[in-house]
Each structure stands twice: as structure tokens, then as C-alpha cells.
Design goal:
TIM Barrel; alpha/beta; single chain; 2 domains; 28 helices; eight-stranded parallel β-barrel; about 625 residues
Length: about 625
């Protein structure tokens, strides 16, 4: 056993730099090029079939369209190409290590393209079906955790009764695929290294694993289990650190608010890393079994030179001379490619995190949270402190109200009268902003906020732009306002903020004016009661409805019209969970941390929730004893 472990370590370590460099570059390119390409193909498919938005109401008709099958086959082909390329390079690098041959990154990539080309030749294409069969087995143990990590639409849960049936169905599918998987376990290796066509590669694979399928399966499962335990170990360590920090800073509002979000983000990253590592881990394990089985049967291993010759990867004299003369240039080129790829990957992830790649598919977009008048439970409403507090609590949006002063300035305030928040009995149209700015908007909430001023909309926009937060700007038209909507649109254009906000109002005429001024501005009609065909309001892109009026039927109609639904103002745990179950798109709340925790708990696996609860109990017990 020790000898086998040493052999595995030797093979991995011999060309470890090339192996790690290839995997990092390949996976980064996958994130920045391959994943966006998949989404682009799907968007083109939607456009070609005449659909702009998918919901549970129209998805059946969409799936019956003939072009959907063509598009689906194309997407499967892209996944096959990506996986087959990864397998080809890893198998080749490991084979070079097994024979003590150094392999460069350039050589591995060249072999990958040559091997992919060979897979599409006549007589070889069936090897792609073998690759397709192997894809689900690359992270088989993590799949139940992956399924349990994301929420499932309510209608699907009702149809399946319990989530455990989904996991059981996946397990049954894997059991049915296990026998063909074991029979073709070494087919890709025979094709890649021995230059056999797909039929002979599969035949040789069956013979090589004959009477040893149980041991191969046991070895495979042990490797997968070890990978999963390593994942759980990292996850447990991160959860322990985060929960410990959360317990130590339980009274610090801004720190404790991040606990659940950090755990969910860590779990997502770890799942992504370990699933991306599935291909090289499995290929290494299969390669080791392949070498051992061939040795037991007395089969000779094909030399690296013969493998290169079969795939026409032997460099010419000119290529060798070019590499010698321009070695520094080649290194600089690879370094530049790595740098560009890393930057592109970071930009893509940041854009995805900000919601700039939201898909127009119901249940695929993440539910968002809007801070009602800022973090108004902890700070005086509609003030810079409340907005800053909402940002630090991790809000996705900030909701605010705007009024117009006597001199035409647009400032942030809910009421037309200043009495409730500042103690001054005057109306917005009776004062210039210079006078309004001197009012104390914080003392009525808490004396420690004395001197908090009423901000201009431009101040809030500057804060939002600096922190990449979007604004929900509610128009509060007053009888004496002059050109309120025109001034608002002008400010948004001057601040270049049109794409980072929505304009909302309970006055339908106001959002009609906004649409007349700029049809591209996203508008939201706010109502405390909804009945009938509310989607027949052309000026309203989305709807913001009082939570007590948000019914499953309203949500279904709004989504089926290709629009979003916001629920306000949702402050209790039970009501937040109800809105999550009804699949609203945005929860407007005074308590951002509570809403975030409820959403995170819904989309975080039971394993993580149980670990957090257990560690909280243990830390509480320890602190009690101390």
C-alpha cells in the first residue's frame, strides 16, 4: 500500500508544475469563455424560438420546439469537448510522468488539440459517448451535497413530495450507469495512449478490467469519498472560524450580519473547486489502475515518443530552434495569457455577483434584498447613515423616497411634511434645500444621531456608485411639484446611473412620464393591493406589492408576463420565509440581516445548517462553563 502511495506521489510530482498550470489555465478559461458561451448559446436559442422569458407556464411548450433539441445537442457537444480536452491533457501529462519524461504546458495543450481532432475522425466518434458516460462520475459523492445546496421550485417539490426522492433518483441513475462505466473505464486511455479506435479501445477496456470490476469500483469510491471528506474538512474549518467570530462579535451588528453569507459563499467556492478538480483526480486514479492492470496482464506500455508520433505531436527542427531562440518570449506570452485570463475571470465573477448576468429564467435568478429607506431598523430612515448601514449589512438594493424642494432640488425624504422625522412642521414646497439641509433628521430616532442631515439624491447616488449598490427610487409627487420626473431623469443621466436603478411610484402617471422621457428606464408600479390583470399596465416593467397581497396566483401571472415582483415591507421571519416560498424576486425589508439569513438558509444545504447549529450550541455551552 505504501509503495502505491509513493508511486502516485511520484507521478503527480514529476510534472506537477505543468499539471497545475494547465488545470488553472483551463479552468479559468472555462469560467471566462466556456460558461458565458453556454449562456450565449442558450440566449440565442430563446431568441430563435421566440421566447423572451421562461416560466413554469411556458417551459413545456418551449421544450417541445424542434430547435430546442438541436440546441441541446450543441450544448452537450460543447460540454463533451471541454471535458474531453481536460481528460486528454491530464492523461498525457501523467503518462509522461510515469515514464520520467518532462512535459511542457505548450506540449500538453498541443497534444490535447490533436487528440480532440482524432476523436472526430470516422470510426472514433463513439469515444465521445464514453466521455459523456464518465462525466457524472467525476464528482459522484459531491452530487447529493450539490443538489441539497440549492433551492428547488415549490411546484417541483410538490411533484417530488420530498427532496430525498430527488437524491434517491440520482443514486438509482448512477447505479444503472455503473456497469457500463466500469466496462469502459480504460477506453479513453487506450484511445489516447495506444492509438486504438473507439471500438477496439472499449473491447480492450472490458478485457483489462475483467473480473476486477468490484475492486475498481471500490477504489474509485474510496477516492471519491476521500475527496468528499477533504471538502467537508475544509468546510467545517471555515464554518468553525466564521461561527466563532460570530459568537465573539454577537453584539456587533455589522460583523454578525455577514456570518451566514460568508458560510454560503465559502460552501459555493469549495463545491466549485472540488467539482472542477474532479476530472484530474479521477483521471489520476484511472491512470494508476490502468498502469497496474496492464502490468498484471503483461501488456507493454506505449512510449511517450510513440504516443507523440501517433498524434503527430513531434516538434519539427524549426519548432525546436524557435523555442530555443525565443524561450523568454514564450514564457512572457504564457505569463501574459495567465494574467489576462485571471483578470477576465475576476471581472466576470464580480459582474455575476452584482447580478449583471441574471438569466431571464424563473427560479434561476437569485432572490434579492432591498433595504427599506436604508437600514431603517437600526438607523434614522432615508439618511446617509441608514444607507451606509444597509451597504455594510450586504443589501443588494436600497429603497429611498424623493421629494422636491421649493428651489427645485431633489432630496431624499418619505413624508411631504418634516414634522415626523425632524420636528419641524413645514412642507417640502415651502422650503429651499439650503434650509432643509440644516434640519436634524436623526434626533427623533436616537439622540446619538443628532445632526444627521437630509441628503440630496446625488449624494446617495455617489455612495451607491462607490459601493456598487443599486437604488430603488420611489417618486412621491406632490401637488406643487414642478417637473419632478424631468429633474429625476436629468439627474440619472448626468450621473450615468440609469442602468443601476429602478424608478418606482404609487402614482401610475409618474412612471408613465418617466417612460415618455426615457423608455429604457426600468419602472416599477407600487401598490398595496393587487387584483385582476395588473400586468396589463404598459408603463410598468415590474410590480411592487404589499406582502399581504402577494398570492401564488399574482406571482405566477407577473412572472408569466416576463416581469418581476417585489414584496414590501417584510420584517418578520415567518413573512420573509413565506415570500421566499412564493418565489418573489425582491424582498423589501427594514431588517436586511434577517432577510439575508432566511434566504441563505433556504439555499444552503442541511449539512451546513446542522454544522452551524451544532457549533453554536457547543460554543454557547463552552462560554457558559467559562
Amino acid at each position: 500500500m505504501e509503495e502505491r502511495v509513493r508511486e502516485v506521489r511520484r507521478i503527480i510530482r514529476f510534472n506537477r508544475r505543468t499539471l497545475f498550470a494547465f488545470e488553472i489555465l483551463y479552468k479559468l478559461l472555462g469560467v471566462t469563455v466556456f460558461v458565458p458561451l453556454l449562456f450565449r448559446v442558450f440566449d440565442l436559442l430563446l431568441s430563435f424560438t421566440g421566447y423572451h422569458y421562461l416560466t413554469l407556464e411556458n417551459i413545456r411548450r418551449f421544450l417541445m420546439h424542434p430547435m430546442v433539441y438541436v440546441g441541446f445537442l450543441f450544448l452537450v457537444l460543447l460540454v463533451l469537448l471541454y471535458t474531453a480536452g481536460d481528460m486528454s491533457a491530464v492523461i498525457y501529462i501523467l503518462h509522461c510522468s510515469n515514464q520520467y519524461k518532462k512535459c511542457t504546458l505548450e506540449k500538453a495543450i498541443r497534444f490535447m488539440f490533436k487528440n480532440l481532432k482524432a476523436m472526430f475522425r470516422k470510426g472514433n466518434r463513439r469515444i465521445l459517448l464514453t466521455v459523456l458516460l464518465m462525466i457524472p462520475f467525476f464528482s459522484v459523492v459531491q452530487i447529493p451535497e450539490l443538489l441539497a445546496s440549492y433551492s428547488i421550485p415549490s411546484i417541483v417539490q410538490v411533484a417530488m413530495r420530498q427532496r430525498i426522492l430527488i437524491v434517491a433518483g440520482v443514486i438509482l441513475l448512477f447505479l444503472l450507469l455503473t456497469i457500463p462505466f466500469l466496462r469502459q473505464l480504460y477506453a479513453v486511455h487506450y484511445f489516447t495512449l495506444d492509438n486504438l479506435d473507439s471500438a477496439n479501445a472499449k473491447k480492450k477496456s472490458r478485457k483489462l478490467g475483467n473480473y476486477r470490476h468490484r475492486w475498481d469500483l471500490l477504489t474509485y469510491l474510496l477516492v471519491q469519498l476521500g475527496t468528499y471528506l477533504l471538502y467537508m474538512l475544509f468546510l467545517l474549518l471555515v464554518i468553525f472560524i466564521v461561527v466563532l467570530i460570530g459568537r465573539l462579535t454577537a453584539r456587533v451588528y455589522l460583523v454578525s450580519a455577514f456570518t451566514t453569507s460568508v458560510i454560503r459563499m465559502t460552501m459555493t467556492v469549495l463545491l466549485l473547486v472540488f467539482n472542477l478538480a474532479g476530472t484530474p483526480i479521477c483521471c489520476t486514479m484511472i491512470s494508476m489502475l490502468y498502469y497496474r492492470r496492464k502490468n498484471q496482464r503483461g501488456e507493454a506500455l506505449v512510449s511517450v515518443h510513440d504516443v507523440d508520433k501517433a498524434r503527430r505531436c513531434i516538434p519539427t527542427t524549426w519548432e525546436k530552434a524557435f523555442r530555443v531562440r525565443h524561450k523568454k518570449l514564450i514564457v512572457l506570452g504564457w505569463s501574459g495569457l495567465f494574467l489576462v485570463t485571471v483578470v477576465a475571470c475576476v471581472v466576470y465573477i464580480l459582474q455575476a455577483h452584482r447580478g449583471e448576468f441574471r438569466r431571464n429564467v424563473e427560479y434561476m435568478s437569485a432572490m434579492e434584498v432591498t433595504a427599506h429607506r436604508g437600514a431603517s431598523r437600526y438607523y434614522p430612515e432615508n439618511t446617509m447613515s441608514a444607507f451606509q448601514g444597509a451597504i455594510e449589512a450586504g443589501t443588494d438594493w436600497i429603497e429611498l423616497d424623493v421629494q422636491q424642494s421649493r428651489d427645485g432640488q431633489i432630496f431624499v425624504m418619505h413624508d411631504r411634511n418634516f414634522k415626523r422625522t425632524t420636528g419641524v412642521n413645514a412642507y417640502s414646497w415651502d422650503m429651499d434645500y439650503e434650509e432643509i439641509a440644516k434640519l436634524d433628521a436623526g434626533s427623533s430616532f436616537n439622540k446619538k444621531f443628532e445632526g444627521e442631515h437630509i441628503p440630496l439624491l446625488t449624494e446617495v447616488i455617489a455612495l451607491a456608485k462607490e459601493n456598487h449598490v443599486r437604488l430603488n427610487i420611489e417618486i412621491k409627487p406632490a401637488p406643487k411639484d414642478v417637473g419632478l420626473e424631468e429633474h429625476l431623469v436629468q439627474i440619472l443621466e448626468e450621473e450615468d446611473f440609469l442602468d443601476s436603478c429602478v424608478m418606482t411610484s404609487q402614482a401610475y402617471r409618474s412612471i408613465e412620464k418617466v417612460k415618455e422621457l426615457d423608455p429604457d428606464i426600468v419602472t416599477v408600479y407600487v401598490t398595496g393591493f393587487a387584483y385582476g390583470r395588473i400586468t396589463g399596465m404598459p408603463a410598468a416593467d415590474n410590480f411592487s406589492i404589499r406582502s399581504s397581497s402577494v398570492s401564488p396566483a399574482i406571482v405566477r401571472r407577473v412572472h408569466n408576463a416576463g416581469k418581476q415582483i417585489y414584496a414590501w415591507t417584510v420584517n418578520s421571519r415567518d413573512m420573509i420565509n413565506l415570500m421566499i416560498d412564493r418565489q418573489v424576486d425582491n424582498i423589501i425589508t427594514d431588517d436586511v440581516p434577517l432577510a439575508k439569513k432566511c434566504i441563505d438558509r433556504k439555499i444552503t444545504s442541511d449539512t451546513v445548517n446542522d454544522l452551524v447549529a451544532y457549533l453554536n450550541r457547543q460554543l454557547r455551552f463552552m462560554s457558559y462553563r467559562l
